[in-house]
Amino acid sequence: DTGVSQDPRHKITKRGQNVTFRCDPISEHNRLYWYRQTLGQGPEFLTYFQNEAQLEKSRLLSDRFSAERPKGSFSTLEIQRTEQGDSAMYLCASSPGGGNSPLHFGNGTRLTVT
Amino acid sequence: AQSVTQLGSHVSVSEGALVLLRCNYSSSVPPYLFWYVQYPNQGLQLLLKYTTGATLVKGINGFEAEFKKSETSFHLTKPSAHMSDAAEYFCAVSEGDGNKLVFGAGTILRVKS
Hints:
The structure holds two protein chains of two kinds. In chain A, strands 2, 4, 5, 6, 9, 10 and 11 form a seven-stranded mixed sheet that branches. Chain A has strands spanning about 5, 10-15, 20-25, 30-35, 45-50, 55, 65-70, 75-80, 90-95, 105, 110-114. By secondary structure, chain A is mainly beta. Chain A is globular, with a radius of gyration of 13 Å. By secondary structure, chain B is mainly β. Helices cover about 0% and strands about 55% of the residues of chain B. Chain B has strands at about 5, 10-15, 20-25, 35-40, 45-50, 55-60, 65-70, 75-80, 85-95, 100-105, 105-110. In chain B, strands 2, 4, 5, 9, 10 and 11 form a six-stranded mixed sheet that branches. Chain B has a five-stranded antiparallel sheet with strand order 1-3-8-7-6, with no helix packed on it. In chain B, a hairpin with a 5-residue loop joins strand 6 (about 55-60) and strand 7.
């Protein structure tokens, strides 16, 4: 169990640029979640996958955001035409599924949009 | 929809003193409840969880929490604070078929020497 891995740890980009983040979940976990966390707030749910199927998206996930999990393993989160309001920590988590299974979080990608 | 309220965005205790972090939830169904801890620039680490059964749940690092259905509370306690406990703590409730977690706004714990 190597834990959930996220890359990069930090990303600084200029407004209007596109960015992509990667998440590698714990290998036997079939559920993968993306959250966003801003300063002074708890993590907010963005979307989740069961294997390769994206089953739920938050209304926080605007059209500029897209997430994929093409083979049911790693996932990517892309933000197009970044805005300063996108600056946040993006957290990925995985779980084996089931209502009482805790989520295992990665260390996050901190995005700064200048 | 489920929601979580954490009373007190900042809590300060002396080393060796009791730690009490408050969490109240709203849920239309029997809840699954979790406490996570976050150190600066890191992800969230699970402290403990309540699913069913015993209402007093023990976690890592000497923390425990008690589920009180009548009060819709799940407060986190530790008998004696240590400097290494200084961090931000999040209470969360599981929601929906997807088991996504709904988090409170967090409580920053400061431990004074």
